[in-house]
Write a structure and sequence with these properties.
Helix content: 25-40%
Number of helices: 13
Radius of gyration: 21 Å
Shape: globular
CATH superfamily of the largest domain: Type I PLP-dependent aspartate aminotransferase-like (Major domain)
Strand order of the largest sheet: 4-10-9-8-7-5-6
CATH architecture of the largest domain: 3-Layer(aba) Sandwich
CATH class of the largest domain: Alpha Beta
Number of domains: 2
CATH topology of the largest domain: Aspartate Aminotransferase, domain 2
Bound molecules: pyridoxal-5'-phosphate
Mean pLDDT: 97
Amino acid sequence: MSNTKDLDKKYVLPTYARADVEFVSGDNAKLYDANGKRYIDFASGIAVCSVGHANKRVNDAICNQLSKLTHTSNLYYIAPQAKAAQKIVEASGYDMKCFFGNSGAEANEGAIKIARKFGEKEGELKRYKVITLQHSFHGRTITTVKATGQSYMHNYFGPYPDGFVYADDINHVESLVDDHTCAVMIELVQGEGGVQPLDREAVQKLAKFLKSKNVLLIIDEVQTGVYRTGKFLASNYYDIEPDIVTLAKGLGGGVPIGVVMTTHKDVFSAGDHGSTFGGNFLSATAACEVMDILDEMYDEGTLQKSIDYFDDSLEKFYSAHRDIFTSKVGIGMMCGLRVKDGDTLAKIILNAREEGVIVLRAGRDTLRLLPALTITKEEIDEGFEALNRVLSSL
Ligand SMILES: *Cc1c(COP(=O)(O)O)cnc(C)c1O
């Protein structure tokens, strides 16, 4: 560890406040550090390792593909990319086409480009404004950081692209739409913002209003997508028809990949957008296998069973510690407990690691849990036993 830590301090830019631990191996929802200590992972690399660590099916699929080809560029047809697109579109239930990039921010950049080109062509005025929500999180590039409705993130890096407008909440979006608005971009459950699902009726009402104004609805499903909430997309729960959906985190099972998909299949033409690495043989093969595993779990009902077991365990934990937690939030395997104050939350996260369970923070006061969708009952039990020890020793 000290060697890794020394190298990191010396050669890696200090953009992350790293926890003092180095994991060296994993197995489904278990992680092992350099000292051989075992942890239950309730974070799954921030919702990325959707099918667990060291998943054999994903690893075999990747190794098999890499023995043939890793990358050829998007100048040529790529079989696993085309197959991944089919699987994603079919699972979504929407009549869409996909573009592949490498991250959530890149997917959202693509979404904004589609919306802006749509806004350039449709209507008499040039339409370019994108409305997003307070406390949202859409990425770290210059454009997506500006799309993110958290003003503390808008320091230092300006001037930013024009045309981003922030609504205090979902009910205030409508009043901000004007003749220059091309799109509204929202997360249905804000991941970084506190794991609070948006009100279903408010979202449906907004979706209907936007359709009537020919303003695009972009749903950022970078965190909520790929079965995180129990359905393939959180949009499926809300029973809405978005114009654009973005995916990334859970799709590659740990291999970097991002997708923007849209019903507006003809907005982009050749040359409008691109990505060197996007959807190459490596990432697209990983995505295909992750999709197969999760589609099967969904169809067999095992995904819902895991979600129910996790939720019951969380409910018991929450009920036992109502002196510390003020509410329980989230959908599916995207859950949170509001903690009475930020200091207590910081202590819980630190002590949890000591007790052998990895948890996350969201916003100022939310303990966030994003386990692998393949987590077993035994792993869930062991994780909550550790969390109970943390709470009783506070
Ligand atoms: C993580 C996240 C992003 C950014 O994804 P990167 O891969 O880090 O660029 C964007 N939107 C949401 C909702 C996210 O959770």
